[in-house]
Amino acid sequence: MTVRKTWVVVTAVAGAGLAFVMVLVIAVYVVAGNLANGVGSGARALAKGAVPAAYQTLVQKWGNLCPALNPALLAAQLYQESGFNPSAKSPAAAQGIAQFIPGTWATHGIDGDGDGDRDVWDPNDAIPSAASYDCQLASYVKDVPGDATKNMLAAYNAGAYAVIKYGGVPPYRETRNYVKTITTLEDSFAAPVTRVDPSKQAAGAIYYAQKKLGTPYLWGGNGTADQGGRFDCSGLTKASYASVGITLPRVANDQYNAGPHPKRAELLPGDLVFFSDDLTNSRTIRHVGIYVGGGYMIDAPRTGAVIRFDPIDTPDYFGATRVTEDGAKALPTTV
Fold first, then answer.
1. How far, in Å, CA of 255 to CA of 320, rounded?
2. H-helix or E-strand containing 135?
3. Residue 209 C-alpha from the chain's centroid
4. Are 128 and 62 in contact (CB under 8 A)?
5. pTM here?
6. What are phi and psi of 308, to 5 degrees?
7. Which of 12, 178, 196, 281 lies at a CB distance of 3.0 to 4.6 Å from 157, suitable for a disulfide?
8. HSE-up of residue 95 (Cα within 13 Å, Cβ side)
9. How many Å apart are CA 251 and CA 240, to the nearest integer?
10. For 276-326, how does the pLDDT look when each residue is reduced to its tens digit (9 = 90+)?
11. In the sheet where 317-321 sits, what is the strand order?
């Protein structure tokens, strides 16, 4: 929530918004037709900064503990459970970065760092324990038909017996939602192995944002009438995508997890672009804008400024997210 080439295109947006949007719609769908394959499958390396630097080595190492697991999937679980908060505690007494309940920790917690204790509050023990527990579950259901990773996640949610009984992911709504959520979030923690599909809603999101050009910035602004229709940075991006039916989280560092992450050279109009003073940790992101092409974004910069075009190629440029409907739906409401 914190704020922070073509000049022809930029000028066209400012002077002839609707015409620009029509061109943008055509461009987005042409590119969509050329990029039908999207993100590749296989081993999933971590995306830049997706995991806080303090935990990246642990997640990368232990995420390769067994074939059913990978670093991006393990990162998705940790984010879903605690938002990488090692002090998290739930009303159900789940504890630490991996949200183990005491009974499960007593059985499955391991001394991941070899210091002689098993501390649920220490990520050096909790992250290895989460990976170890996942892989134990995978071993229990290894003979069940179907996708080994999905069966492992289903066993995590519903128990191995249910997966064995039903010969795969059981027909429980909660379990099926959990499996879909984690496998979808996996994409937002993985470095894409090829170009990713553009969002079909991108043009509409830009159209909404460009209609707000010149609106004064408001810290915490969501564009409501009582706020005079004003926004802060993530309020603007949230409202822009809400206008095309996609619900994003309120704050910028959670919006980063709403889809896969294209490289700088692969940016397309509609991508969210992010900025931070710590380029190793997406949880420190402090500003977001909507890319419009030509190295420019529409953003709500800061108090005293108005919604405007700004260049993205600055030293604090963190990366980008290509918003997807499934990616946004998978995000937890609180982390």
1. 10
2. helix 123-140
3. 21
4. yes
5. 0.83
6. -160, 180
7. 178
8. 15
9. 14
10. 999 999 999 999 999 999 999 999 999 999 999 999 999 999 999 999 999
11. 308-311, 296-299, 287-293, 272-275, 317-321
